[in-house]
Amino acid sequence: MRDSTEAVAPAVEIGVVVDRIYRNESRRIFATLIRLLGDFDVAEEALHEAFRAALEHWPRDGVPANPRAWLVSTGRFKAIDGIRRRSRFDSLEDRVDEVEAIVDESIDFDGEGIADDRLRLIFTCCHPALAADAQVALTLREVCGLTTEAIAQAFLAAPPTLAQRIVRAKAKIRDARIPYEVPEPNELPARLDSVLRVIYLVFNEGYSASSGSDLLRVDLSSEAIRLGRLLVALLPDPEATGLLALMLLQESRRAARVSPQGEIVLLDDQDRTQWDGALIGEGTALVQHALASRRFGPYTLQAAIAAVHANAKRSVDTDWSEIVGIYDVLLRIEASPIVELNRAVAVAMRDGPRAALALIDAILARGELRDYHLAHAARADMHRRLGDAAQARAAYDRAIALARQEPERRFLERRRAQVASGDAAD
Amino acid sequence: MQYLLLCCFNEERWHKIPEAERERIMREYGAFQASLAASGRYVAGAKLGSTQSATTLREHAGKPVITDGPFAETKEQLGGYHLIDCKDLDEALAIARRIPTLAAGGAVEVRPVEFGHPA
Fold it and tell me: What whole-number distance in Å separates Cα of residue A339 and Cα of residue A346?
């Protein structure tokens, strides 16, 4: 009789199991190893040693009942062995101290509330003593396990630049001794802003991959939502609540957002019966809770806009005046050309395309969004609705040239073809 | 781990502060210094003379070049330092946060000490 369904399986099958565990658990294991070993690079090496050991031992001994605990404990012992081996050559006193410090540490496998290692890792990666761009890069690399290439693409930066940014940030954590801790309650609010920003970026990385043909990355979005939930439990801050609401409301549309053929479906055209009612209910309740606090910020307001959409039974039921009104408040708190662009699209729904086109042209004239494909796509759409096919096609061409995501490019090409075939106004 | 807190302030601005206000800041400084010493975190510290009294030494073609003034013309000048012993950066930042010149527009640079030499 087998003690586990996956025990004593052929090596090939074990390889699949290990792969799956690596995908789902490696960052959590890594976060715990950093706490136990006190160093990012030592933990990274220990993580790989642990997975190598799993590939070696599991085909013979079977998959342990708690693979994560096995991997943490194996990684920790591999690291201690490594330090001991090196200390034999170095015979340095502090090497021995280092080992003692690690061995003394009691292992906490289940992050209870505040002790979640990934939250600890996030607060360290988002420490204000690190440059803002390094915080995001480091979190995506270390917490989410994204490749340097993927992060570089998201930031429109060259991979070597990104890699250097991450190396520098890790060096500063080590040299300036940035603690691996969730901040004290009185410091938490000040440290929260960058954490929220990073979590939302992670969510977006999962919700719409920044480039390539793979439009949705489920794991990263659920990861961001999990972190968002944990954060709200840890710190009942209105903006943390607002961010969680925003992510849940966006997540609620996931199934309807992409066609079975992998094509983008616009909000207007989505099959609303596919929207997840439970997520909408939870998200809407959270928005109301955050708004009632009167201490909300941009995330809560964006969630409020998402809630207006989510609670419209049909596209034509959308309360566009309400949405434009929320955008006005949002712009007062946080002026941004992208928010202005989104507001212009809402104005088009309320007042018609001509009013919106004037706003979009004014935003583009200022130059910040000149290379932003969605600004040109919105402009094209206004021209299309006004029946100006030539202008619409020209704007679609510009948007297509700037789009980096394959499904977005295909979507824009379809829209352009509709204009070309004379199906201009709607 | 030791951290050096470099207390920087715009000297010109400092001299424009009314005397009573400057005295109050210096009294707060005394209290800060006393509590720091009592906490056991204090290693060393000093208030420096103004940058007008500074002399900078460089070497050019093997010869010393002596110039009047600080090493760099900056908006803020180094006015004093505290050497402290802390468990991590957060603790050092929490101590730095209590430096009284911050509220009057000063800046504090927090630098880890790589290694030191005993006296």
Answer: 11
A55 exposed, middle or buried (CB, 10 Å; 0-12, 13-18, 19+)? middle
Q: What is the DSSP code (8-state) at residue A106? A: P
Q: Kindly report, residue by residue over A70-101, the tens digit of the pLDDT.
A: 999 999 999 998 888 877 666 555 555 555 55
Phi and psi at residue B99, to the nearest 5°: -70, 125
> How many contacts does A have with B, using Cβ atoms within 8 A?
23
Q: What is the pLDDT of residues A101-138, one digit of tens each?
A: 555 455 554 444 335 787 888 899 989 899 877 887 89
Written as six digits, the tokens of A120 are 């600890």
Q: What is the pTM of this model?
A: 0.71
3-state secondary structure of B5: strand
Host H or E run for residue A54: helix A40-61
Q: Which of B6, B88, B114 should be substituted to probe chain A, the one whose Cβ sees the most A Cβ atoms within 10 Å?
A: B88
C-alpha distances out from residue A264 to A258, A415, B75, Å: 5, 11, 53
Taken in order A157, A158, A161, A167, the sign of the CA dihedral is positive
Residue contact B112–A175, C-beta within 8 A:
yes
Residue of A177, A182, A184 to mutate, testing the B interface (most B Cβ within 10 Å of its Cβ): A177
Q: What is the nearest CA distance from A177 to chain B, expressed in angstroms?
A: 5
* CA nearest neighbour of A40 among A169, A131, A133, A134: A169
Location of structure tokens 């969730």: A182
Residue written as tokens 């994560």?
Answer: A68
Which stretch of DSSP H or E encloses residue B79? Answer: strand B77-85
Whether residues A179 and B112 touch (CB distance < 8 A) is answered with: no
**Cα–Cα dist A30/A33, whole Å:** 5
Residue whose pair of structure tokens reads 């199991």 in the numeric block: A17
